TrEMBL record:
InterPro entries: Gfo/Idh/MocA-like_OxRdtase_N, Gfo/Idh/MocA_Oxidoreductase, GFO_IDH_MocA-like_dom, NAD(P)-bd_dom_sf. One of its GO terms (molecular function) is nucleotide binding. It comes from Bacillus infantis. Residues 143-238 form the GFO/IDH/MocA-like oxidoreductase domain. This is Gfo/Idh/MocA family oxidoreductase. Residues 2-121 form the Gfo/Idh/MocA-like oxidoreductase N-terminal domain. It comes from the Bacteria. Pfam families: GFO_IDH_MocA, GFO_IDH_MocA_C3.
């Protein structure tokens, strides 16, 4: 039996907890919140698992084989370093930070003392993502366009650039990641951000509410990724389109659509990518076989690096090249 702890008591923690509770080889042993009362309330939803208000107390009080981190971008750093020091594998929800500063510290610690890691880029686990990669084989990819168009999440930290990193880092990172997963690494980014609506109607908004990034891929294609968070709640358009020598491939929240020679073919995902990523991580903990993990901490940091470079590009008003330092 694999004993798992969860750090964080928000909605995403509940998503993962429900999946873990359904896995026969997993014992959801403990949860840690920003307060003991939040942890206790969370634990009661899942059979009375023990709650803690302090990470160190949970790690001292429980024999955990793995930990799930579901915390806001600004809360990363000390938690991961504690887990690495104790040799405890961890699954961490994206993004891995607000910038590259904290992830680089964690990367250094992982190089000194490796543990199994997985990052929640769940798009990679979609069956339609695998089909997308297959359909791109043998084709010449010319251009990619992606978008994350939606509304501003209601949590206060999200509207604070220093605590969330902004929409590109916090949400659109999924589009950047699936671009890397299918088209390879990014060489250079140029970004322009703006504030059109939200800072006039909400107090304390410091995140840009519109933005576009042009990405030059090492393999040759160009990509343009745009986002906005000014739409009314419930309205959204999220996806990524690939224009290649054989036609068009469109991946969105509904599935994958292929347009080739006037013929349209559609595929839908059959299994939850959240379940598939959990199975891959737990399998790795149980067996040591990490081949099923599609995004470990090192790989996720490359996606983070691209997003951080785009933020920097918008700040300085010029292109930023992506390094190969790790």
């Amino acid at each position: 039996m694999i004993n798992v702890g969860i750090i964080g008591t928000g909605w995403f923690s509940e998503v993962h907890a429900k999946i873990l509770m359904e896995m026969e080889e997993v014992n959801l042993a403990a949860v840690c919140g920003t307060s003991l009362s939040k942890a206790i309330d969370f634990g009661e939803k899942f059979g009375g698992i023990k709650g803690y208000g302090n990470v160190e107390e949970m790690l001292e009080g429980e024999r955990l084989d793995a930990v799930y981190l579901c915390v806001p971008p600004f809360a990363h750093g000390a938690i991961e370093l504690q887990l690495i020091k104790r040799g405890i594998p961890f699954f961490v929800e994206k993004p891995v930070g607000t910038s590259m500063e904290t992830p680089e510290i964690i990367l250094s610690a992982l190089k000194e003392k490796p543990v199994i890691t997985s990052v929640g880029y769940h798009f990679r686990y979609r069956e339609t993502a695998a089909r997308l990669k297959h359909e791109l084989e043998g084709a010449v990819l010319g251009m990619v366009t992606g978008q994350w168009m939606g509304s501003m999440p209601p949590v206060p930290w999200w509207r604070d650039l220093a605590r969330s990193g902004g929409q590109l880092v916090e949400q659109t990172t999924h589009i950047i990641d699936i671009l890397r997963y299918t088209a390879g690494e990014v060489e250079e980014v140029t970004a322009v951000f703006g504030s059109r609506v939200l800072e006039q109607i909400h107090k304390g908004v410091t995140v840009p509410d519109v933005g576009t990034v042009t990405l030059k891929m090492k393999s040759g294609p160009l990509a343009v990724i745009s986002n906005t968070c000014i739409l009314p709640e419930g309205d959204s358009k999220i996806g990524i389109d690939f224009y290649h020598s054989n036609g068009i491939l469109q991946l969105d929240q509904e599935g994958l659509t292929k347009r080739e020679n006037g013929i349209v073919t559609e595929w839908k995902d059959q299994d939850s990518p959240y379940v598939l990523e959990a199975r891959a991580f737990i399998h790795a903990i149980r067996t040591g076989d990490v081949s099923g993990i599609k995004s470990d901490y090192f790989d996720a940091c490359r996606t983070q690096e691209v997003a951080a470079a785009a933020v920097e590009s918008a700040r300085i008003g010029s292109s930023v090249r992506i390094t190969d330092d790790f």
